[in-house]
Amino acid sequence: MRAPEDSLQVFGQACGDELSLQCSDARGRCYHLPPHVCACRTESGVVFLDTRRDRYFGVGGQHVAQLADRVVGLLDSAHPHRDPHDQAVSIERVKEMARPLVKAGLLCPGSHERVPRNLRSIPPPDMERPYSVCQDDRSLRAIDLVNFLNACVKASWYLRCFSLGSIAARVSEARREGDGFDVGRALQLAHRFQILRSWTFTEKDQCLFSALSLIFFLKHYGCFPYFVIGVKTAPFAAHSWVQRNGLVLDVNPASVVHFVPILVA
C-alpha cells in the first residue's frame, strides 16, 4: 500500500465555527460520506480513506461510536463496537467531534445521500480453504504469460495515472456480475498467476500492485472477483487483496482476516 504508516492522522479536539446540521433520517443519522470517501469501523475507532488524495485519516477516543452511528454507511457496519456509555452523548458533542471531519471533506452534513457503492460488504475470508503456491508450471500456456505481462503493465499504469477512487470505479465498471463465478476456474487461474508472479516480483510491500494485476489478469478470462482494500489499527496498516464471496485468491486468508474492508470494488 502507499505508505499507510505516514497517512493516518488522528484528529484532536474539535475547533472552529459551529456546524449547522440538516435534518437526520429516521435512524438519527445526520451525516453522510462524500462520494470520494470510504470509511469503516475498527477496534480503535473509525478510519476514512480519501480516494482522491489516496490518504487515510483516523479518529478514535471516547464516544467515537456515537458519531459513527450517525453516519450513513456506518450504522450497519460489521464492526459496530458500540459503547453503552455513548447512548447519553448529546448531539452537541457529536457535532463537536464531526466538525474537523467536515472541514477536512471527510463528512457532509445531512443524511440524504445514498450509501456509496464502494462501501458494499464482503463476507469474511474462508479459513477452511488452504493456501499454497505450487511450483508445478505444466499447466502454463504462452497466452498466460502474455496476459500476465499485460495485466502488470496495466496495473502499473493505473497506479501511476489514477487515484484509488478512479481505479475502483474502473474496476467496478468492467465487472460483469451476471456471468457467474466458477470457483475451480478462478483457483486454477490464480494458481497460474502466482507461479508467474514468483518468477517476476514478490508481493512484499507491493500488495496493491499485485492485487490489481491479478484483477486484470483474471479479467482476460472472464473472471471477475472483487478488489479489496482493508485496514487495521494499533498499529495502523493497510493491505490489498482479491476475493470473491469468502474465497481469497491471492494471499493466505489468515494474513487478511484481521483487516477490516474499507473499499470493495
Describe the structure.
It is built from 6 helices and 10 strands; from the N terminus they run E-E-E-E-H-E-H-E-H-H-H-H-E-E-E-E. The N terminus is likely disordered. The chain is an alpha+beta fold and 265 residues long. The chain has 2 domains: 113 residues, no CATH class; 123 residues, no CATH class.
Secondary structure blueprint with pairings:
Blueprint: E1 31-32, E2 37-42, E3 45-50, E4 55-60, H1 64-68, E5 71-72, H2 91-103, E6 108-109, H3 142-161, H4 164-174, H5 183-200, H6 207-219, E7 226-232, E8 237-244, E9 247-248, E10 260-264
Parallel strand pairs: 1-5
Antiparallel strand pairs: 1-6, 2-3, 3-4, 7-8, 7-10, 8-9
List its salient traits:
disordered N terminus, alpha+beta, 10 strands, about 260 residues, four-stranded antiparallel sheet, elongated
